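User: My instructor asked us to take a sequence, write out its structure as tokens, and then describe one feature of it. I'm not sure where to start. Here is the sequence I was given:
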Amino acid sequence: MISMKQKINFLFFITLLFQNFVLLSCSKKNSSPKIIRVEKIIYQKNPQKENEGNGGGIDSGGGNGLSYRLEKALSFAKEALTLVKAQSLDTTGSENEVFTFYQKHYEELLNEVAKVTFELKHPENIFIMNKSNNTNIKIHESMVTELRPYAPIQVANNLNVTDLGELASNIIHELGHHLGYTEDDDDLLVKVGSAVIEQAKKMSLDFNDRISLCMKPENFIKTILGKWTGFSRGSWSEKSTPIEITFDETGHYSAKSTCRGKSCYPAFYYGSDEDSDFKTFRIEQACGGMGEGSLDLFFSKKNTTSGRITSMIQSREGSIQYLSFKYFHLNTNLIIFNLQRPI
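Assistant: Let's start with the prediction itself. The structure tokens for your sequence are:
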């Protein structure tokens, strides 16, 4: 027979086991995700390229003005953090968490912004990192970082944001990751970056500057002529199609999918890969290192359609030249292109 005392001891033992199991489960559930996003770049100015192409602009390893934009945005971020002291951030109501964060970490943010570095990365690398970290913040579509102090901020080399206030806000956002904060349901770091910049604007810091360096469209076209290889991807899909594209000086192009599987799409997803005189492209303006224009798709001699080219940027990284752009078929369906070739 089991005595009453033995029964009580047994129940007490089972209770302790259950409590330890619950504590262990909660600890694992609340552990921080491993990596997050940032935005910073090690840039170099090439004096010989400063005035190339009638305003082709400051070289960022690719002549797209990216390093210049980041340099100015970083300068704005430093000014904003210096101007908006820990106790002067104006937040109310549900934004009290923003004030609390800023008051607690103000000095750390100042230290971080003083040592920012950026690393240019191919857009596909950023896309893969963003997918692996499972974050949906728009900032992270172009920038990523690690959860440790002074980590380099990795930036897609086709970043096309020209609003310096927005870039400065994004930089402050990413500094929060260096302090060990991940993204949360309340978008705390997004709110912190926005609040600091908005407060700085009220205190007369001017963020209305835009990168407006422009070059002649024909000069921009010269930088993209020739053969490129890479991938195209519909914005609705995670599947990329291997492709080859050649732009020539007559305004025509050739585009072919190099996919050899059963479920392959044409290079532009729509239309035909067959060469045709109807396949033409136009660059109508090129400002801030980004080309804008249109391109005609060929289905048959009696069926062609025209769509918009946006955010066309070419850049360099080591001995590789990159070209990225977005194509809107019938101005609605977005196809994303990331191409490269040896220099």
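For the description part of your assignment, you could build on this observation: The mean pLDDT is 79. Try explaining in your own words what that tells you about the chain.
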